[in-house]
Predict the structure of ABC transporter ATP-binding protein.
Amino acid sequence: SEVLICEGLEKSYNKGRPNEIKVLRGLDLTIPKGQVTALVAPSGAGKSTLLHIAGLLDTPDAGRVVIDGEDLTGARDGRRTAARREKLGFIYQFHHLLPEFSAAENIILPQLANGQSRAAAEARAADLLDRVGLTERIDHRPSALSGGEQQRVAFCRALANAPSLLLADEPTGNLDPATSDRVFDVLMALVRDTGLAALIATHNLELAAKMDRVVRLENGMLSEG
Ligand code: ADP
Ligand code: ADP
């Protein structure tokens, strides 16, 4: 079954003005359950635009976004926000963890916001941190963690509410190459374990090659490979 369907996406900035820029030109993308897709794009090609539209943070000028069978393109803001919380996990280049909270609390809080009980949220946080090898760091604040450890906590937070789809923008982009490789392998294991569908933007072609499929964004369209 398809977790994400993007169909005929079009997006321009400065529409109707001389400096109009057509970023997406009828883009199609389908991601089935369990498939991890690498998104490769030259800088400025529209990678962030696509991730924002797929992540329900922005709307296309034309086309539709269907997640878990629900067309959310024209849905009300409240429904889109709820769908984002229930169905999507986000990972960015920089972790954006809450500095005042421990590793565990950073994973617990989004679950409480989603209506989970504290006991269940704590158990899930402990399990996720264990999967990424951070059981010893559960009570540490982000500032007491290395860059790679911070990013591993961010992975757990993205998965806190058991999303259907993970969207990641250069998830290991701010780490040195050796750390990036190790942390990326942790992310892949976590994604595989949970059977998530994922769209992971990266400039790193070696990392892209570890995914199930590579799509390239160029001239507003996607091509395979
Ligand atoms: P990428 O993430 O691949 O670098 P973006 O999706 O951020 O690309 O941007 C694609 C193109 O659209 C770029 O040329 C960028 O300058 C332009 N762009 C992005 N956002 C805006 C905006 N809000 N207004 C005008 N132009 C924009
Ligand atoms: P509650 O679930 O009791 O409503 P809050 O949303 O205020 O709690 O905070 C969630 C958790 O974060 C609580 O367990 C609390 O102990 C912890 N917490 C709150 N503020 C801080 C802080 N400044 N630093 C570390 N932990 C905090």
